[in-house]
Write a structure and sequence with these properties.
By secondary structure, the protein is an alpha+beta fold. It folds into two domains: 102 residues, Pseudouridine synthase I, catalytic domain, N-terminal subdomain (Alpha-Beta Plaits), CATH 3.30.70; 133 residues, Alpha-Beta Plaits. It has five helices and ten strands; from the N terminus they run βαββαβββαβββααβ. Strands 1, 2, 3, 4, 5, 6, 7, 8, 9 and 10 form a ten-stranded mixed β-sheet that branches. Strand 2 and strand 3 form a beta hairpin. Helix 3 packs across helix 4.
Length: 263
């Protein structure tokens, strides 16, 4: 049978999602915990691979097994063997043709930025930080120019393996709550480092280095060298993956982050 899991993690201490020879990834830890319950190795497939230092509140994975276990074993049982920074939120039996990555038709990322002169202590590793004052209205105006189908080459990492830089961004919002500035993005798929590169350029606009129309110029030029540097991974969260209702997944409000209710 095929089982889907909802997983959340603090990526600060991990070398990203995907298994590496040196270990220390989220996938390493999750598969080791699953083996404790199953008694045999299980390979998991995720909806979206996250880089080192990136977090998730709404990651979705699937794996295949011939073992009969109650769904609670894949949640509470697996959580017993996971490090504190990773937790399974739910488990669901799914059809054999469900695929955590290829069945998804949307992904949502949230970037949490603390904007104040002093660096953060409590949110260290879990939020980005920028010490100069930022104009949220200007950033929101610039973000609106990103919505739609565009060639996002200017916001693509050199190591990106996507076949095409053309993506359709359905949402690009910027909101503020006290010292927190929150960037929300949704698309069917994203390029490598795309969200962090978008945030970096929007911050440049917010600081007054460029007008909002500069974002359009970057999209038209398609030159990564003209955009802002890649922003810190610390504030980036995969907050949700969208699937058709017929899959029956218990997807909830994964986008919620403590201390940011109402955003």
């Amino acid at each position: 049978m095929r089982i889907a899991l909802g997983v959340e993690y603090d990526g600060s201490a991990f070398h990203g999602w995907q298994i590496q020879p040196a270990g220390g990834t989220v996938q390493d830890a999750l598969q080791a915990a699953l083996r404790e319950i199953a008694g045999v190795p299980l390979d998991v497939v995720c909806a979206g691979r996250t880089d080192a230092g990136v977090h998730a509140t709404g990651q979705v994975v699937h794996f295949d097994t011939s073992l009969e276990r109650p769904l609670t074993a894949w949640v509470r049982g697996v959580n017993t063997f996971l490090p504190p920074a990773i937790a399974v939120r739910w488990a669901q039996s799914v059809a054999d043709d469900f695929h955590a990555r290829f069945s998804a038709h949307g992904r949502r990322y949230r970037y949490v930025l603390i904007n104040r002169p002093q660096r953060t202590g409590v949110w260290h590793g879990r939020a980005g930080w920028y010490h100069h004052p930022l104009d949220v209205g200007m950033m929101r105006e610039a973000a609106a120019l990103l919505v739609g189908e565009h060639d996002f080459s200017a916001f693509r990492a050199a190591a990106c393996q996507a076949k095409s830089p053309v993506k359709t961004l359905r949402q690009a919002d910027v909101q503020q709550c006290g010292d927190f500035i929150v960037f929300d993005f949704e698309a069917s798929a994203f390029l490598h480092h795309m969200v962090r590169n978008l945030v970096g350029s929007l911050v440049y606009v917010g600081q007054g280095k460029h007008r909002p129309e500069w974002i359009e110029e970057l999209l038209m030029a398609g030159d990564r060298r003209r955009a802002a540097p890649t922003f810190s991974a610390a504030g980036l969260y995969l907050v949700g993956v969208k699937y058709e209702p017929h899959w029956g997944l218990p997807l909830g409000d994964e986008a919620f982050l403590p201390g940011l209710s109402g955003i």
